[in-house]
Amino acid sequence: MDEKYYRRFESFRNSLAALEEIRERDLNDSFILSGAGAKFNITFDLAWKVMKDIVIQRFAVVDFPKGSPREVLRKAYEFQLISDDAWMDMLRDRNDLTYDYDGEIVKTVCERLINCYLALFEAFQETVETRYLPEREDKAFE
User: Which distant-in-sequence residues (6+ apart) come within 8 Å of 3 by Cβ?
Assistant: First the structure.
């Protein structure tokens, strides 16, 4: 894997660590909600881009449209990088947040984030760390 992949994965890990703080935050605070929504978007985008890096570099698949998280998620599922189709729900929620003008959608997304999505992000992180990082010679990410 190239250096760009490792940097992107490290950014994903850092973003996920910050997002996990939502478990201890007051979800009645609109500022917390908006920050959680933004951090969810960033974490999701980094996750699917790491998946894309792995699919391209490890499995030599390049036949999906550029910038298409839906196709990347399908390929990631096919290659067992992820094991749950709830990632498609995450994609839909990420897209819906774009149209959340009154803050109602982010409340629902934050509930799903705590009850489901964080576990999916964490499982993906574990998969990458156990299957795709041990090859790194300098072990900078351990």
Answer: none
